Amino acid sequence: MSAILQASAPGSLMLMGEHAVLYGRRALVAAVHRRIRVRLQPRADGRVRIASALGAIEMPRGRLKTRAPFRFVLAALRRYEDRVPSGFDLRIESDFPHDVGLGSSAAVTVATCAVMERWTRSRRTRPWDLFLASREIIREVQGLGSGADVAASVFGGILSYRAQPARIQRLKRTIPLVVLYSGGKTPTVEVVRRVARTMKTQPTMFNAVFDLMDKAGAAGFQAIRAGALKKLGEIFNIQQGLMEALGVSNARLAELVYALRAARGILGSKISGSGLGDCVIGLGRSARTDWPGRRIEAEISPRGVLVTGGA
Fold first, then answer.
1. Contact 63, 254 (CB under 8 A)
2. 3-class DSSP state of 68
3. Which residues neighbour 24 within 8 Å (Cβ) at sequence distance 6 or greater?
4. Can you say whether the dihedral through the CA atoms of 226, 231, 236, 238 is positive or negative?
5. What pTM value is reported for the model?
6. Which CATH architecture describes the domain 5-172+301-308?
7. How far apart are CA 146 and CA 160, in angstroms?
8. SS3 (DSSP) at 161
9. Cα separations (Å) of 148 from 30, 58, 66, 106, 167?
10. Of 158, 182, 146, nearest to 32 (Cα)?
11. H-helix or E-strand containing 308?
12. How far is CA 69 from CA 8, 15, 73, 82, 288, in A?
């Protein structure tokens, strides 16, 4: 196959269950309309070249090594090294910066795996298999990961998600969100490990918080399905309190949370993601323009990974 192939996968936002999902509880996650695109063009030689806004790198096929800034992409490509028929150029383009907390690592991993699956197989890959392969790569590179953001990138829409064993239930409804970027990011792995260390000193208390997050996730799922946005906003606020109990909020995030709650049209607000940076989300719509943080336009997308080109 010599045709140009392209795959794209949506970014994502965590709605509920951050951290708790790593301990067997439910999370709610949503795909957003901002996507990462991976374009593959076969070469006549044995070279592999990867390029994006982050830079470029070139290596011989069969000797790929995982390194920054393409750790997730290279880990995905290594999975297919023994199947590719030639060298290739891989061009990565994104609708959003990699450091704003919209699940860029999961999205680029899913898109890379999807385009490689299309190139190296004669049959279409099942979404579930793509999810499992991409989640495995994320865990290989960073040492942990629930896979909730991977699920959103593969399947799209709003999902109820459990990690072990993996269970995914998709909601057909959508919800309006206002997304504000805090201006900084603490790496997810660092935040997760910080929570794990504190949990060792207070296991009973932390498990109680995770149980409450699980209950809030179940109630949030039902509220979304019923279109009960006022109730969902209340649950957002409860979830924010639980995130603060885990120690992953700070003054900057709290400023954004309460700025959202003070705005007309916003029914509730919370941190989205691991915390100590990234984004805060507000449920609803607001005409306000003078937010204390950068607004990220991000609507929930019903579409997951897409592949074009080839046979």
1. no
2. coil
3. 162, 163, 164
4. negative
5. 0.95
6. 2-Layer Sandwich (3.30)
7. 13
8. strand
9. 9, 31, 23, 9, 10
10. 158
11. strand 306-308
12. 19, 28, 9, 23, 36
How crowded is residue 287: how many other Cβ atoms within 10 Å of its Cβ?
7
Query: What is the DSSP pairing of strand 88-94 with strand 47-52?
Result: parallel
Tokens of 218: 């179940």
Q: Which position among 82, 95, 129, 149 bears the catalytic label?
A: 149
- CA 303 to centroid of chain Cα atoms: 14
Q: What is the full DSSP assignment across 88-120?
A: EEEEEEESS-TTSSS-HHHHHHHHHHHHHHHHH
Burial 227-240 (b: 16+ CB within 10 A, else e): eebebbbbbbebbb
**Residue 99 three-state SS:** coil
Token pair in block for residue 96? 């959003």
Active site residue 149: yes
Q: How far is Cα 85 from Cα 87, in angstroms, rounded to an integer?
A: 7
Q: What is the pLDDT of residues 234-288, one digit of tens each?
A: 999 999 999 999 999 999 999 999 999 999 999 999 999 999 999 999 999 999 9
**How many degrees, rounded to 5, is the angle at CA 181 between CA 226 and CA 188?**
85
CATH code for 177-296? 3.30.70.890
CA distance to 19, 116, 234, 302, per residue, from 238 (Å):
15, 42, 6, 26
What's the rounded Cα separation, in Å, for the pair 248 and 214? 18
Tokens linked to 5: 């192939």
Task: Extract the tokens encoding 306.
Answer: 């897409």
Residue 187: cis peptide before it, omega within 30 degrees of 0? no
| 211-223 pLDDT per residue, tens | 999 999 999 999 9
Both structure tokens of 94: 């994104």
Domain boundaries, the chain: 5-172+301-308, 177-296
